[in-house]
Amino acid sequence: MPRTRMPVWELFKYPAVKDETTGVWTVRGRYRDDSGARRDIKRSGKTAGAADRALRLAFKNAQVQSQQHAERAQRMQEEALTLGELAMRWLEWRKPAPVKIDQTTQTGTVATDELRLQTWTSYESNLRLHILPAMGELNVSGLKTSDCERTIHDLYNKQAGTGYRTAAMAKQVLMQVMDYAVRQGHRSDNPVRSVSRIPNAKKAPVKLKQATVAAVHEAVRARQPEPGVGGPKPTSRLSDVVLLLMATGLRIGEVLAVRWDDIHINGSAMFLTVSGTLIERKGAFYRQNFPKTDDSQRTLPLTQEWIKAMIRRRNLNRRLTPTNAVFPTRNGTFVRPSNFRDDLKKATGGTLVGEKITPHVFRSTVGTAISEEFGHEAAQMQLGHSSPETTRRHYIQRPDIVPDYSSSLGNLAPPSD
Hints:
By secondary structure, the chain is an alpha+beta fold. Helix content is 43%, strand content 12%.
């Protein structure tokens, strides 16, 4: 039976031995250091106690020297660690479990990590394209706030008011990477915390004029095949999707992810449950069986115009498909949001009556229309935001003329003669 291996830094002593000729006591011992090697040690003294104390002191000094050597090696390693190397470790640590896609139903597995794959992909892309080319070779230990400030703000074009989202994402990602460095003991502070705020160019939400809304509906209904261009002929799908966007204010990924299972009929009323969204990333396209946020999961009543369109679509498309999509392709799969945007651009020419036409504009138009009649909180619930402030800032167009409140100011006027 093999002998038990000696524990690291545990001193084993032999009994003290006295040299009868000189009267000197000697104590021998052995131990294993951090490398696992066995070390022999001995010390002498005028008495057995003095020799024992000398041996213990030598053993303790050996421990201290080994610790100092390890700290020096660690310090040298940390000083040589670059931001690029640290970022790769952080990305690997944050990477969520891969999404398993059912190719028949085009649905992805439910996320088991708080970070979604599309978010992680955005982080990786921002690091690879913007942060690391500028800072990747800098040592983590020597990274300064001024380095972070310059890199982040260089991504924002103040004159043109462009690049805000890229710069804001870079600041967010770099903040998390350096927080990771602090937790791993590579730094005692996070230099990104003192980076100044990125000025955001104010972009007013757009509400389409009534004439533009009518023109959009007419354009998507009247779309014809382009001369000399092959491919499938236009169908009513484009106009029906636009109608649903205008009737609900949903995100385009949520609309194209609607299945017949999400449509509910109660008497003469029809309701739509927002239960998922489409994820379109490089190398992956699938239906995520939950919407963008928890507040996005909701049930909305549909307008009579859309109810008519839904009944018509159901009568025309009685063929069951594995995806059960309300707006399927010819093959029964979900329509990619990017393809829908291309179709919408072709139908409207990108602009119509001087206004840019996008799915996001439809969403802000719906939000503004509801807010004007029912208030910000009603618009928030319709659009599925977590707070009315998000709805107000990004999706509701402020009126140019303030409503007349002058009747409440009569008592502030000077008394009449």
